[in-house]
């Protein structure tokens, strides 16, 4: 499975950005999908995930109420909608897929840079 993330860029604090991640192949609907991020000098962290049954899980308290995740199985795409962004959201964002619920993520896309200016 190949994952291609896009949509990153420079945005002002308080603005919005939508990241997309498109997967190759025909099994997208069977994967759980996640968005991770890695800020400069920090470890990579999982931000949000959406299961194959569209259950949504938040892992970072600071994005609750601001970020959402959605998937479109007809387009093999998962989205990360980022609203009211803050400078601390600046990071490289990665999408990932896993075949088994509650296991590690098996497939990773290249990151897309998100920079939030104050």
Topology:
Elements lengths: L2 E4 L2 E4 L4 E7 L8 E7 L6 E6 L5 E3 L8 E6 L4 E6 L8 E8 L8 E2 L3 E6 L1
Parallel strand pairs: 2-11
Antiparallel strand pairs: 1-3, 3-8, 4-5, 4-9, 5-6, 7-8, 9-10, 9-11
Derived from helix and strand composition plus strand pairing, the structural class reads mainly beta
Order of helices and strands: EEEEEEEEEEE
Give the biggest beta sheet: 7 strands, mixed
Oligomer: single chain
Rough shape? globular
Our measurement of the CA-to-CA distance between the termini, rounded to an integer number of angstroms, reads 37 Å
Strand content: over 45%
How large is the radius of gyration? 13 Å
SS elements, strand count: 11
Give the number of helices.
0
Low-confidence parts = none
What is the residue-averaged pLDDT? 96
Helix-residue proportion: under 10%
Question: What would your notes on this structure say?
Answer:
With 118 residues, the chain is mainly β. The chain is built from no helices and 11 strands. The mean pLDDT is 96.
Summarize this entry quickly.
With 118 residues, this protein is mainly β.
Short descriptors:
118 residues, mainly beta, seven-stranded mixed beta sheet, four-stranded antiparallel beta sheet, globular, single chain
């Amino acid at each position: 499975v190949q994952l291609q993330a896009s949509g990153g860029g420079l945005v002002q604090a308080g603005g919005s950005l939508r990241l997309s991640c498109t997967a190759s192949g025909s099994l997208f609907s069977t994967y759980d999908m996640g968005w991770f991020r890695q800020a400069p000098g920090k470890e990579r962290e999982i931000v949000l995930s959406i299961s194959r049954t569209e259950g949504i899980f938040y892992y970072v308290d600071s994005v609750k109420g601001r970020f959402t995740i959605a998937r479109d199985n007809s387009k093999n795409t998962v989205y990360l909608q980022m609203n009211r962004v803050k400078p601390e959201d600046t990071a490289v964002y990665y999408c990932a897929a896993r075949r088994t619920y509650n296991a590690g993520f098996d497939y990773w896309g290249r990151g897309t840079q998100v920079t939030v200016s104050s």
